[in-house]
Amino acid sequence: KELNLLRNDLDGFLYISTGLEGDVDLQFLLQGGELTKVKSDSWQKKRFYRLQEDCETMWHESSKIFRKNNTFSIDDIDSVRQGRESEGLLKYTDDSLEDCCFSIIFKGKRKNLDLMASSPEEAKLWVSGLEKVITHMDNLNSQQKSEHWIISCMRKADKNGDNRMTLKELKHFLRQINVEVDDTHATMLFEKCDTSRSGTLEGDEIKQFYELLTYREEIEVIYGKYALTDGQMSAANLLTFLKTEQMASWSLEDAENFIEKHEPDQTAKQKKHLTKDGFLRYFSQKEGSIFNPEHQPVYQDMSQPLNHYFISSSHNTYLMEDQLKGPSSTEAYIRALSKGCRCVELDIWDGPDGEPLIYHGHTLTSRVLFKDVIKAIKDYAFKVSEQPLSTHSSSMLDNFFFKDYPLKKIASEYPVILSLENHCSVQQQKLMAHYMISILGSALLTHPLGNEMPTAFILQELKRRILVKGKRLNKLDAAFNNNNTEDVDSVSEEDEAAEVKESDQKTKPKKSKIKLAKELSDLVIYCKSVHFNSFEHAKEKQAFYEMASFKESKAKTLADNSASAFVHHNMDKLSRIYPAGSRTDSSNYNPVPMWNAGCQIVALNFQTPCKQMDLNQGRFLPNGKCGYILKPEFMRNPDFLFDPNNLTKAPWLRRKTLHIMVISAQQLPKLNKDKPKSIVDPLVRVEIYGVAADRASQQTPHINNNGFNPTWNRNFQFIINVPELAIVRFEVEDYDTASANDFIGQYTLPFTSMQYGYRRVPLLTQSGGIIPSAGLFVHIMALDN
């Protein structure tokens, strides 16, 4: 790579032969403008916003004199919403300003930024410009992001902006990229590159420094082993590598096409050769990732009954924080749905003015209107977003902003389940039913599909439908028999509602009855809530459309003591598991034992970043992130007697030995950015989750003061008895002798979705966002026992 060209790409790409002069949206952002920041009725103040020239940072004016940082990173933005799409804008702005408003939604727990432009045209420029920057930053592959990050750090270290680097600036740069070297080594590195003896590095000297810095011995060794054609890899050499090391079923034509698409050197490309730079780019593409790209789209059989799938599910979805005094918000529903959640919970209580409210009863959590939540669900249940298909261009910023990208549509078309915990009076229940029917329209399932009583509900047939889970006054057959039910009758309350009362009282109360309106009852079609008595009772009495809810302790007892019966129960019945009421901090239980017992709706507190949520997101990573994962056949076929706690020789026992070599890491983030000399001491932990016999954990030693390119070359071995239920989690931590290690990043995926051979493992933040330039380099192999 020519580093000076890279510097042009990053420092001057706006002006040097990029064709961006005509990009109105981008030029508008760079020029900046005044926007009204909206925080309340009384706090609406004008602030100047501008995209900085690195095109990765937004600067904004602030009234706080001593504020150190008036910027935020484009990488911190999750999305931009045009119009009055946030609770704040809906509450504090007038309907007439709809087209002037937009919101910047941040990743993690940072609050939304609600803004108002002076005109609809100006608002469109802000939204389209920001979306363009976000989209194309996301579109860079990992190698391009790595280059972007390194040069960005170089630019920050070049304090006087003279495109030269002094020894002092070099040391500052090394700390920026998370590596600590002593003065002797820094001086030696500097003098080795300062061939002109000018006391600064410039031009080719910076290029030499860059090459020394980014040299990766492991890539050199692998490439050297297969680069057997004039020092380069021919297409045949590449194919040998792919078949021998990567266990890939490529053809020679596939190898040639890869070279044509990704090789940066035109001379090598004409010879159908792959240079070392081209080989490195293989690992930044989906073909070189640990996650199998064939599992990225919806690839499973989606024509099975709903109870044959694990379903991504949320508990107390309305909460943004804890269960006692945290805020309730429509935003929580939007975030859960955007993460692939397909079952959301609504706790509904009588509100003033006859309007039902959603909040956590008997607590100080804030309240949100039921109708606003239903509107948010309508808008985001099957929301289609447009994202570019990566062209994986050979130049780091080739096609950046100014090329037309093909668009792909990303959304789950599979059904959303509304789990109602109803505490309302009959009158407000009728209003709830009215809101759901009028707002959700044809998406709401109000009658069984077909003209006769079904025996199962098929997932594929429920695409883009919304199902209501709750109490029903009669059997589903009544939907075909004129439904002459009383307008109002009493039913037992939900098990979870009863548990809330139980936690409030010293003695266990008798489960009370609630009045249920026929209008609300009739909307419960395929998910009628019933109480669980025993597996024998359920087998005899429970219909396929009836489902029970279990608090985590009850479910764990059943999973521990009656796992095989639980698995069989879940072959033709739905089960929902929810966290204990004592988890007032919105913590989560381990979902894996519940999945091992075949439970479909294992509801977690989506608002809480934690290992349990990592496991959930890893479980639902494949199959298009659609929120539905087909259970293994031995959990669907009643002929099998699967017991996760008692493994015997059977179809599910496909023992494998998993070999994982943790080779190195690249560009781990600094954790304490306020302390320039603070460098991470990373270690890697590999964890296996699944049936009890498969649970294991091993870790590398820590590497002192190197977050840029630490190397371990550590081999781990794991025995996997039931691969179809195993989940693999990689976690990187910053070692600390005096306290608990700090989290750096993680990546979790099903064992069956891993690719073998040399692979790159991307790293995610605690909230699930990608860390743009960071990753692990590993070798994966699994052998049959």
Keywords:
785 residues; single chain; alpha+beta; disordered N terminus; eleven-stranded mixed sheet
Strand order of the largest sheet: 13-12-11-16-17-20-21-22-23-10-24
**Coarse morphology:** globular
* Overall pLDDT level: 87
End-to-end C-alpha gap: 45 Å
Q: Assembly state here?
A: single chain
Strand content: 15-25%
Count every helix, treating DSSP H or I runs of 4 or more residues as helices. 23
In helices, the fraction of residues equals 25-40%
Spans where pLDDT lies below 50 across 5 or more residues: 1-21, 385-409
| CA-atom Rg in angstroms | 28 Å
Could you describe the largest sheet, including whether it forms a barrel? 11 strands, mixed
- Which class do the helix and strand fractions yield? alpha+beta
Q: How many extended strands?
A: 32
Domain EF-hand: 145-180
Region (Disordered): 484-509
Catalytic activity: a 1,2-diacyl-sn-glycero-3-phospho-(1D-myo-inositol-4,5-bisphosphate) + H2O = 1D-myo-inositol 1,4,5-trisphosphate + a 1,2-diacyl-sn-glycerol + H(+)
Subcellular location: Cytoplasm; Membrane
